[in-house]
Amino acid sequence: MERAESSSTEPAKAIKPIDRKSVHQICSGQVVLSLSTAVKELVENSLDAGATNIDLKLKDYGVDLIEVSDNGCGVEEENFEGLTLKHHTSKIQEFADLTQVETFGFRGEALSSLCALSDVTISTCHALAKVGTRLVFDHNGKIIQKAPYPRPRGTTVSVQQLFSTLPVRHKEFQRNIKKLQSLIPFVQLPPSDSVCEEYGLSCSDALHNLFYKTMFAEMEIVGQFNLGFIITKLNEDLFIVDQHATDEKYNFEMLQQHTVLQGQRLIPVTERAKLISLPTSKNWTFGPQDIDELIFLLSDSPGVMCRPSRVKQMFASRACRKSVMIGTALNTSEMKKLITHMGEMDHPWNCPHGRPTMRHIANLGVISQN
């Protein structure tokens, strides 16, 4: 009781302003919330610059590096100083201009926030410039290095160590980064006419549809090559299929669909939960990090079937061991079964480890013409 009374009589701490550097970091953390936000802001800047080609590079899923390059108009030298300063923009000058905004960005906060949260380097070459320039910025958005840099017209923004100035956010970002990669969708498109011409592919409608799963049921089995690959034929197109990779992916998807993992009992303690033992599945053990990842996935995608990345690794390992191996001779019916399974998969194009399951070899019509 005496301790409680003494603590209640202590004078309240004085209210003081937070230093400007800390304010900038905290506010920037509300502008750039995640990897996807950072990429979105940079891509939108490229689009606003009139870019027709944008390249995105992520190193270690974005933990080490996010780099967006474009062929836009570039940045004029007189705009270098204000490029990454807070609330500096070429899009608007006053509030009334908001009614006529036709660009994605206009607040002048994105690059300033990225400087506050990471190490930013920008190389740019304006359409009227004779040579490009490489700029290195500090966390306040001020230029600390400036040097000539040969490059074509356009701009490249490199963001290293995102959230490094916010230790707690940075640690959480590193822990969850493999889950965040799913926030950026990638679509595999059929080859363009120029690609077909460069590699001697047919640009017929049949080949342009080669990425549709319905084709597998129509494929003919030509034979087996090197005891590891299945040669198939669809109309005049020849394909080579990795027998192990495709069987592995089929088994992986079947495990994903039909395996039921026994739930781990969690004992609620007020608003938290206590893990009383480590969940296991045969020789695989799951720890608190896997539980944290699952909770993140469930909160980020409510109503969607979610599994931690380690569960997928377990399924991939089991699928690999039970699949047809390289070096195994297959008869026609066995090869046909593997090809039929490809048409039944959700994602037949790559094995669980990312290796392609099939490739187009040649078009017999093009070969006969040559």
Automatic annotation (TrEMBL):
UniProt superkingdom: Eukaryota
GO BP terms, alphabetized: mismatch repair; somatic hypermutation of immunoglobulin genes
Matches recorded under InterPro entries: DNA_mismatch_repair_CS (IPR014762), HATPase_C_sf (IPR036890), MutL/Mlh/PMS (IPR002099), MutL/Mlh/Pms-like (IPR038973), MutL_C (IPR014790), MutL_C_dimsub (IPR042120), MutL_C_sf (IPR037198)
MutL C-terminal dimerisation domain boundaries: 221-330
GO molecular function, one term: ATP hydrolysis activity
UniProt key word Transmembrane: no
Keywords, comma-separated and alphabetical: DNA damage
Pfam families (alphabetical): HATPase_c_3, MutL_C
GO cellular component: MutLalpha complex
PROSITE patterns, sorted: DNA_MISMATCH_REPAIR_1
Keyword DNA damage attached: yes
Subunit field text: Heterodimer of PMS2 and MLH1 (MutL alpha); this interaction is required for the stability of both partners. Forms a ternary complex with MutS alpha (MSH2-MSH6) or MutS beta (MSH2-MSH3). Part of the BRCA1-associated genome surveillance complex (BASC), which contains BRCA1, MSH2, MSH6, MLH1, ATM, BLM, PMS2 and the RAD50-MRE11-NBS1 protein complex. This association could be a dynamic process changing throughout the cell cycle and within subnuclear domains. Interacts with MTMR15/FAN1.
Entry similarity comment: Belongs to the DNA mismatch repair MutL/HexB family.
Name of the molecule in the record: PMS1 homolog 2, mismatch repair system component
Provenance organism: Mandrillus leucophaeus (Drill)
Gene name of the encoded protein: PMS2
